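Deliverable D4.2, example record:
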Amino acid sequence: MFAISWRAAPVWGLILALSTGPASAQDPRVVTLDDALELSGVAAEADTAITNPRLVGPRAETDAAVALVDQARLSPNPEISFDVENVAGSGAFSGLQSTEYTLSVGQRLELGGKRSARIGAAEAQAELASLRADLTTVELGQLVRERYLAAAAAAARVELAEDVVARNEELARIAGVLVEVGREPPLRALRADAALAEARARLVEAEAESLSARTALATLWAGGEAPLVPAEFPDILPPPSFLSEAQESLTYRVARAESTAAAAEIERQRSLRIPDPTVSAGVRRFGESGDNAFLVGVSIPLPFRDRNQGNIAAAEARLRAANAREAVALADYEQAVATARARYLGAEARVETLSQTSLPQAEEALRLVRIGYRNGRFPLIEVLAAAEARDTIREALIAAREQRGLAAAELIGLAAQ
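Output generated by the structure prediction step:
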């Protein structure tokens, strides 16, 4: 026959508090990572209208660049001129009897490959704008993943803080009972009350951090109310190839497109060195005799001073700058891949160690301390120390899972093609 005295009953309450936490019901307003990506427009369907201003602006810049390609394909407009000569003069030229009327049409002819160079430069700028818009989408996706992970980690820390508060509330109650019956000194109750106050303050801090993280997430799609994020880390897996080798990234492609656009601009500026002639043809009517005469003319600028040398030199300097940025982008990209890969593998190892070894060992240590406390071998403070050690490991596991997700999100962004 097994019996529990009333003095041992608080101990069983403490054990129950140490092993369980408050239950949380699933709220239908909870936002998953897929929901967040869709709300931000990153994972929206192709025929879905994008309203997120973070994406609208870069896509509008792409539309503008495409429109400039169409503009670059257009040839110069013809010119029409009408001249009236020998009007309201003196002597033989008084009145309108000696007036001459000239109507002519002129057309500027583009030489030196101006039109093809202009089209090439516009197409290079359109490609660059498109890649920049894609890069903006990738960066927004990475930011959504990072902020979602921060919100999930904050929610997990709220749950941990709630568990600690519940445990310390029960501990404070038990300590008071044990002090009353003389099993513990009065200092034990004071220490338990102080630990409870600290745990409650930490809970308030964790809730504030959670609200801040969820609000920061909502700003990525101009959302009003902070969404509810569960205390569960989403499965964010980096591309398998990026765990072994680096590949070409969208960031590097943007830098290379900048070099291509700069080279195309040099060709356009060089084509402007060659002057364009304007040919014209028209008819002249002589008012005095009523006769008509056809006119043909050619005009061409003389490039004695302005041969567009300043613009050519500036375009060549911009190409050198773009080539330098391309080289830096490649070096930074390779370094970023190596760093993110190391962070991911390190965090993955920490998560596995903490979840598979450290936390089970802490749970087992806490179980043994509880048994020893029930048998009078350990004081109450040992139970508290074991529980705090387990909570420390839980906090470390939350941090490791967050770091693993952040590194995976960065690798996904770096792998974007």
